[in-house]
UniProtKB/TrEMBL annotation, chain A:
Its EC number is 7.6.2.11. Keywords: ATP-binding, Cell inner membrane, Cell membrane, Membrane, Nucleotide-binding, Translocase, Transport. The complex is composed of two ATP-binding proteins (PotA), two transmembrane proteins (PotB and PotC) and a solute-binding protein (PotD). Part of the ABC transporter complex PotABCD involved in spermidine/putrescine import. Responsible for energy coupling to the transport system. It catalyses: ATP + H2O + polyamine-[polyamine-binding protein]Side 1 = ADP + phosphate + polyamineSide 2 + [polyamine-binding protein]Side 1. It comes from Aminobacter anthyllidis. Coiled coil: none annotated. The gene is potA. InterPro entries: AAA+_ATPase (IPR003593), ABC_SmlMolc_Importer (IPR050093), ABC_transporter-like_ATP-bd (IPR003439), ABC_transporter-like_CS (IPR017871), Mo/tungstate-bd_C_term_dom (IPR008995), NA-bd_OB-fold (IPR012340), P-loop_NTPase (IPR027417), PotA-like (IPR005893). It comes from the Bacteria. The keyword Ribosomal protein does not apply. GO terms for molecular function: ABC-type putrescine transporter activity; ATP binding; ATP hydrolysis activity. This is Spermidine/putrescine import ATP-binding protein PotA. Residues 23-253 form the ABC transporter domain.
TrEMBL record, chain B:
Residues 85-291 form the ABC transmembrane type-1 domain. PANTHER family: INNER MEMBRANE ABC TRANSPORTER PERMEASE PROTEIN YDCU-RELATED-RELATED (PTHR42929), PUTRESCINE TRANSPORT SYSTEM PERMEASE PROTEIN POTH (PTHR42929:SF3). This is ABC transporter permease subunit. GO terms for biological process: transmembrane transport. One of its GO terms (cellular component) is plasma membrane.
Amino acid sequence: MKSLGNIRREFAPWNKPDAKPYIQFKNVTKRFGDFTAVNNLSLSIYEREFFALLGASGCGKSTLLRMLAGFEEPTSGQILLDGQDLRGIPPYRRPVNMMFQSYALFPHMTVEQNIAFGLKQDGMPKAEIEQRVTDMLKLVKLGQFAKRKPHQLSGGQRQRVALARAVAKRPKVLLLDEPLGALDKKLREETQFELMDLQQTLGLTFVVVTHDQEEAMTMADRIAILDKGEVMQVATPAEVYEAPGSRFVADFVGNINMFEGKVADRDSSGATITSANGVTIRTANAGDAAAGSEVAFAIRPEKIKVSSKKPENGDNVMEGEIYDIAYLGDMTIFHVQLGNGQVVKASSLNATRATEDPLSWDDKAWISFRNDAGVVLTR
Amino acid sequence: MKHPLSAITNRLVILVPYLWLLFFFLIPFFIVFKISLSTTAIAMPPYTPTLGLADGFSGLLSQIGEFSFDNYLWLTQDALYFNAYVSSVIIAGISTFLALLVGYPIAYGMARAPATIRPTLLMLVILPFWTSFLIRVYAWIGILKPEGLLNQLLLATGVIDQPLVILNTHSAIFIGIVYSYLPFMILPLYSALEKMDYSLIEAAQDLGCPPASAFWKITFPLSLPGVIAGCLLVFIPAVGEFVIPDLLGGSQTLMIGKTLWNEFFANRDWPVSSAVAVILLLLLVVPIMFFQQAQARAQEQGR
């Protein structure tokens, strides 16, 4: 089977019809006064999955996490964890632990005491607590900082302490609220991979809330994209990127060019789309779009080729003019204005140091893309 | 480059509080200390020696030679003073503890109230200061006396059938001190509780800690700087309190502020009352130093 994004997945319980979901949101609604934070939402998360809730601020992702942790109760609907209804169970009796966005480390306790806090609550024997704390400190590589107070640590170190404290109790599910939000870019990238390793090592189910799509794409097995308290799409990162289910998802994740139009012709090999501003596009990925229906054709910038000469072959070729160029080092982004005035973004990888086909502002240029490069969006 | 003038203005700015302390604390203190070393006299002012250069420099020296610590010795010989100090510390201590018990829930409630109504609540705490302290204490006489408002209310509702004797007892002093100094307890507690991150409580609960236990393990330890500040702000003035024990406590109450007042106005013994004041000050320097150390520590912790 052809896999999207060229990633072969061993772990995909969501594709198995007999797999039992570990966490289930069933028609969950949460209202705060007049404001509906979560609207009749249903979602399934599987055991050992690294699941990301992605959305802009106010989309309800944090509310979902807080309902799982027990800080909020759903107004209606049901949340099940391992088959058990969580309604009425207070946060201190739930087998989930949360890593807070602010880390919420206890400022009057040392790193050690912070990590041991949850274990002491469980009445674990002292020797076992010590052993577990030592293991946790080793896991997050903070052994020599055991006796420090949180304010004596750097941001990255605090983040690790928060993580160690949250996993110390070996929860069934670890909830992470914007876990990397407070770190700088470089540290964030490193930590993303560490989190993934940690999840593999401990074999826990992770549910992470983030507004950073790159973070979600890198770490998660599956991503749920939320908007106004509703799930727009739940899919693997590659599916979300390459086969977005709606205009919202296509636009929200990454950069994309959209051509609004109608299906002019539909056959078994694909469809021809005429856009409202007079562009005709031939595509092989027409999905369930019927002839005559209003659709959008969406295509990512990196799938469009820009050249100064008209390409010999190519399924879709359009003429335009270079409107803007952004050189980013690893790639260059061209904004090409078509004859009809629409500006199309195209990016090309700078695989060599010098290019044979240099393009400059106001140059005449051709854009081309294959008929399987874009998708047709009906919603 | 620093402007040379700015260095001078910097020093002047620093000088102001030192001058303030010099004129309004250190010089008056030395005057009191000097009087405490004198002996009473039927004169104006009512003590000798009075320092002056009327008899030249040698005269001044012989006047200084007359200073003695007899008044301090006297304080150790009459048990009245020792008892008054101890009783003041006990009454102030109990009142401080009661003020903490009353003030903590109020401060906690204020800190957890919606941000929009917090300024109003703060205003309500400070509002009593707009009326004279003396009038407010007098008002308590009207409330607490046997035929007062409280007894009338309790009798009318049938809770009691004999009026309670509250006025002129220690209970009245506790009520008076707690009432008068409550804002000094609430404000530092509020400021400590208000800046506390509520997610810490959520984190504690998330880690398996029930709410009541989370309060004692997280909230209370983190509000400790506020607790210490509030307790000292109540305890220190309460030890030397004169008006409340005099008006509400009746004649049998022994407190150092009252003793001092009696020595000064009734006995007209300025030297002994000055000695009482100096010892009271030394007694209070200990908690004040403790307070400052606690503040420095809180600052060091940074947040």
